[in-house]
């Protein structure tokens, strides 16, 4: 069960990683401190039209370890229960884009969760591939974190070195917390 939005972001980004994406773009847009739109876009293997038509059905999965795939259907349900919306587009050998919109003031909107920790986990648990671009905007601020830029500065130093992890954590928190710690209800 996905208890918060950060777990949905982690799940969808993990799908991008499994799709052999080279770049995963995670974007958050908060409008009027009320509506949160998040999008995960990748350049992975994409889905066939047949799979795309069925991917919101919980009994459709590409996993071999179980016969149900709950991540995308649960994201769609969470977004729609909050008065928001859900959209997925995918093209084979181009990639996939998933967008979910949540009404943060709706009583049925699930909590944000520890989004900064989720973004950090994606980077440090995938130190070589893919690259991540995180972006967030609100009426008051914008934030961006791009592992391609970090790699260019660090050269051969891995992203999961302890000192680098500390720096990435501080950078993500400084940039994203003011935007993503929005008030619910």
List its traits:
globular, alpha+beta, 6-stranded mixed β-sheet, Heat Shock Protein 90, 185 residues
3D architecture notes:
With 185 residues, the chain is an alpha+beta fold. The protein has one domain (5-180): Histidine kinase-like ATPase, C-terminal domain (Heat Shock Protein 90). It has helices spanning 5-18, 49-54, 71-81, 115-124, 147-154, 162-180, and strands spanning 23-31, 35-42, 85-91, 95-103, 131-137, 142-146. The chain has a 6-stranded mixed beta sheet. The chain is globular and about 45 Å long. Residues 63-68 have low confidence and may be disordered.
- Give the CA-based shape: globular
Q: Quickly give the CATH architecture.
A: 2-Layer Sandwich
Pick out the low-confidence regions. Answer: 63-68
Order of strands, main sheet, comes to 3-4-2-1-5-6
CATH superfamily: Histidine kinase-like ATPase, C-terminal domain
**Distance N to C terminus:** 22 Å
Fraction of residues in helices?
Answer: 25-40%
Task: Bin the strand percentage.
Answer: 15-25%
* Helix-strand pattern: HEEHHEEHEEHH
Query: Total number of β-strand segments?
Result: 6
Tally of separate helices: 6
Structurally, the number of domains stands at 1
Q: According to CATH, what is the class? A: Alpha Beta
Reported by name, the CATH topology is Heat Shock Protein 90
Mean pLDDT across all amino acids: 90
Structural class: alpha+beta
Largest sheet: 6 strands, mixed
CA gyration radius, whole angstroms: 16 Å
């Amino acid at each position: 069960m996905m208890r918060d939005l950060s777990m949905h972001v982690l799940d969808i980004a993990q799908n991008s990683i499994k799709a052999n994406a080279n770049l995963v773009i995670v974007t958050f847009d908060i409008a009027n401190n009320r509506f949160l739109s998040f999008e995960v876009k990748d350049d992975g293997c994409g889905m066939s039209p047949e799979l795309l038509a069925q991917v919101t059905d919980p009994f459709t999965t590409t996993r071999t370890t179980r016969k149900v795939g709950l991540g995308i259907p649960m994201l769609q349900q969470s977004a729609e229960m909050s008065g928001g919306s859900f959209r997925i587009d995918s093209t084979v050998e181009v990639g996939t884009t998933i967008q979910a919109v949540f009404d943060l003031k709706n009583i049925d909107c699930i909590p944000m969760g520890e989004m900064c920790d989720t973004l950090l986990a994606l980077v440090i648990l995938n130190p070589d591939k893919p690259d991540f671009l995180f972006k967030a905007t609100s009426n008051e601020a914008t934030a961006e974190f791009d592992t391609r830029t970090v790699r260019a500065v660090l050269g051969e130093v891995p992203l999961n070195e302890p000192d680098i992890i500390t720096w990435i954590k501080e950078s993500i928190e400084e940039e994203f917390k003011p935007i993503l710690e929005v008030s619910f209800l």
